[in-house]
Amino acid sequence: METSTIQQKLQFLSTPEKGEVSALLMRPDEATHLLVLGHGASSNMRTPMLQKIAESLAEQGIATFRYNFPYSEKGGGRNSQATVTATIRSAVAAAHEACPDLPLLAGGHSFSGRMTSTAQSESPIDGVKGLVFFSFPLHPAGEPAITRAEHLSKVDIPMLFLSGTRDALAELDLLKPVIQNLSKRATLHLLDTADHSFKILKRTRTSTEDVFSELARVVRAWALAVGE
Q: 127-136 burial, b if ≥16 CB within 10 A, otherwise e?
């Protein structure tokens, strides 16, 4: 899908205590949805991987609103869960203000995806139609468990899980039953040979499709099925 894309730098108030943080809006022509896209725990909105995800989504007609948390904007240790979830709600509100005509999705890579679902489980995020998880971090590497997924039962909107078959933070024998227990609300798409950062093994990957193109294609199909 060939398209031209508008990119815009923005600022929004994360919380009254923590002040403003930065955001990047990437909106392709004829966008169908807007995804509020958070970053991993130890990164920020400008990482090459998140940029690639945003670019690939734009090619599929999905706009993105990337943003920083206060700690990734200004440095220092990771913010409290309360600050992180409040920032997610603020980001969604700012994204809606920037593109009020587009249906909203929310999520992110790893940590931010989990925090978005945590926020949604505590109280529905205004306007969000579905959640997208790029490598949901089910457990720390080498410490298999499912406690991080307990809150997902309280999420009552559609969820899309995009997970690599080599993701050390989401062992498939644990992830699959978790998603099955969520019934029709949850969809799992596995990315052959991809790890937590979507790095693939070219020699053994059965698909010739670029992994980021695959991600974006799946998000678009799922988003259209979710509806407006």
A: bbebbbbbbb
